[in-house]
Design a protein that fits this description.
Structural class: alpha+beta
Number of domains: 2
Strand order of the largest sheet: 1-2-4-3
Distance between the termini: 63 Å
Radius of gyration: 21 Å
Shape: elongated
Largest sheet: 4 strands, antiparallel
Number of helices: 9
Strand content: 5-15%
Length: about 200
């Protein structure tokens, strides 16, 4: 018999104030039904570093990354019991992420994000259009380098280092030409060639 979903929710999983559910690093062996050494290997080598966070000294990873690997393993393993356990754990993590409690946190975060987005231009602190070099005008705006629809991490959306300040005309050109989709994380596209 597998442990009940509430076991995972209370002893292995935590929901943080960014609306995501996190799995602590030291529970990888339980989640993946393996040894501590192999659990550590999975955490270090098979899960995306971008999904990893540290909360008060506790290393953890977004459950969505764990769910993806559990799903893959459930389809690839040749042992029926292991596949069933991987699917059960995957489904349990999904149910926890879809819980009313997690959804409430996400709605509160959406409200907070809506209030904070207009402040990004000021937080960025630049006085010039970061593409044209012209002084920022009255209708200037903060432009996310990574489209919010594609890069949905709520923490990244409010990071002033993940965008640039531009004037209204520049902003319109960016969106008209779909330049945002050409940007890569950690790099800045050469906009000047496009203007």
């Amino acid at each position: 018999m597998y442990p009940p979903v509430s076991f995972f929710q209370h002893s292995q999983i935590s929901s943080e104030n960014d609306g995501n559910v996190y799995v602590p690093q030291d529970s990888m062996n339980t989640i993946f039904n393996t040894t501590k050494k192999r659990g550590q290997f999975i955490y270090d080598n098979q899960l995306d570093d971008e999904d990893k966070r540290n909360f008060n000294g506790v290393s953890a990873i977004k459950s969505s990354g764990v769910v993806g690997l559990l799903d893959k393993r459930s389809h690839e393993t040749r042992d029926a019991e292991d596949a069933d356990l991987d699917r059960y754990t995957r489904d349990s993590l999904i149910r926890i992420g879809d819980s009313d409690q997690a959804e409430t946190v996400r709605r509160k975060l959406d409200t907070h994000t809506s209030k904070e987005l207009p402040k990004l231009k000021k937080q960025r602190g630049t006085k010039y259009d970061e593409i044209t070099g012209e002084p920022l005008g009255k209708n200037s705006a903060f432009h996310h380098l990574n489209e919010k629809e594609l890069f949905t991490d709520p923490v990244d959306v409010l990071d002033e280092n993940r965008g640039i300040n531009v004037n209204l005309d520049t902003h319109k050109k960016i969106h008209k030409q779909g330049i945002g989709a050409a940007l890569v994380p950690g790099g800045v596209c050469n906009f000047n060639k496009m203007f």
